[in-house]
Amino acid sequence: MTQTAGSPARPRGPAWAGRTYSLLTAAAIVTSLGANGSLIAAAFAVLESGGDGGDVGLVAASRTLPLVVFLLIGGAVADRLPRHRVMVAANTLNCLSQAAFAALVLAGEPRLWQMMLLTALGGTGQAFFGPAAEGMLMSSVEGEHAGRAFAVFRMATQGAALGGAALGGALVAAVGPGWVLALDAAAFAVAAALRSFLDVRHIPPRAPGGGMLADLREGWREFSGRPWLWGIVVQFSIANAVVGAADAVYGPLVARDSLGGAGPWGLALAAFGAGTVAGALLMTRWKPRRLLLAGTLCVFPLALPGAALAVPVPAGVLYGVMFVAGTTVEVFGVSWMTAQHLCERNLLVWLTTWYSERTGGTSKVRTGPDWPDYRPRRLRANSLLARA
User: 345 near 187, Cβ under 8 Å?
Assistant: First the structure.
């Protein structure tokens, strides 16, 4: 049946998937495709240049250290500047650093300090990107559809991660790590272009306040005052450190020595990505009554891949283990994002009551320049999560 001239156009997607959400999802898909291939490429670039496991660890640590150092500052910057501009600037830095890394590898004989420096620049870009990106995503959806929106977002990005890991491993084996790093640089360029079109008019302007140190102190109070928040962050920080070491250092070494090189390791990461897609799909249908309990219990299977690599098990068994770990960690990821979104809504209700009691007003939600701005405070608290 054809649509008549006077009938309204049907929406192309769900009502909650607005322009900002769609652009954020598209850009995240692009960067996930490139980043998961570059993770494999960076490790094998070090190994093919004559490095050993210690050198791979140094390059991986060069990315982690700036994340730890600059993440808090990144949250404060995202609080002061338009978030989409912070995201575009961070993507640009990542694009340039990965392009330089690719050029060094393709030219032959990259030095360890050069790879460490360029990887550190990439970690710095991610430190500034993360808080701004999380704030944009949290503000792009509202109401009862938030859990489904976050699950769909993560399912899309993890599906891209699946393809990126499999394709990246195959390309590293076929044409070498340099070209995979170049593709990652191009992916950052495309993502920066998409994010430059984000609409930030729905985000209220920052209320006048103190300096950056005052903001960081306030964010720390918000963070440390919620035991459920910092308890989960401590748990997942430890898990991240272990899994990061396995993915960035131990996995490539075992793959080179026992599994057959970059291709099988790429398939193992793809199996993990397939598991995350399955977990995200599960969370579009399942809403645990106790989000954080379900999520934290699902962190424990992350120990399985490291144990499988330590044996080491055959490649087929490793793929199955990675799939299970990916599924469970994605249940945690969606539960965590949904819990944070619900926390933001509950904080708004609390502030409404607090405001009414102290101003003698009604219980209606007020808007305007005299309404307390809680969002920057939440963003500063979230910048303390360190990717947890």
Answer: no
3-state secondary structure the chain: CCCCCCCCCCCCCCCCCCHHHHHHHHHHHHHHHHHHHHHHHHHHHHHHCCCCHHHHHHHHHHHHHHHHHHHHHHHHHHHHCCHHHHHHHHHHHHHHHHHHHHHHHHHCCCCHHHHHHHHHHHHHHHHHHHHHHHHHHHHHCCHHHHHHHHHHHHHHHHHHHHHHHHHHHHHHHHHCHHHHHHHHHHHHHHHHHHHCCCCCCCCCCCCCCCCHHHHHHHHHHHHHCCHHHHHHHHHHHHHHHHHHHHHHHHHHHHHHHHHCCHHHHHHHHHHHHHHHHHHHHHHHHCCCCCHHHHHHHCCHHHHHHHHHHHCCCCHHHHHHHHHHHHHHHHHHHHHHHHHHHHHHHHHHHHHHHHHHHHHCCCCCCCCCCCCCCCHHHHHHHHHHHCCC
With vertex at residue 379, the alpha carbon angle to CA 374 and CA 382, rounded to the nearest 5 degrees, is 125
Residue 195: pLDDT band with limits 50, 70, 90: very high
Q: Write out the two tokens for 207.
A: 């209320």
> In terms of Cα–Cα distance, which of 335, 229, 238, 248 is closest to 36?
248
Bond into 205 cis (ω within 30)? no
Residue with the bigger pLDDT between 90 and 66: it is 90
244 with 388: CB under 8 angstroms? no
| Residue bearing the bigger pLDDT, 136 or 212 | 136
Supply the pLDDT for residue 350.
36
259-301 pLDDT, tens digit each: 888 888 888 888 888 888 888 888 877 778 777 788 778 888 8
Distance CA 254, CA 292 (A): 34
pTM comes to 0.69
Position 328, amino acid: T
Q: Can you give the pLDDT at residue 210? A: 63
- In a 10 Å sphere around its CB, with 0-12 CB exposed, 13-18 middle and 19+ buried, how is residue 257 labelled? exposed
pLDDT tens digits along 201-221: 766 666 656 676 776 677 677
CA distance 15 to 218: 35
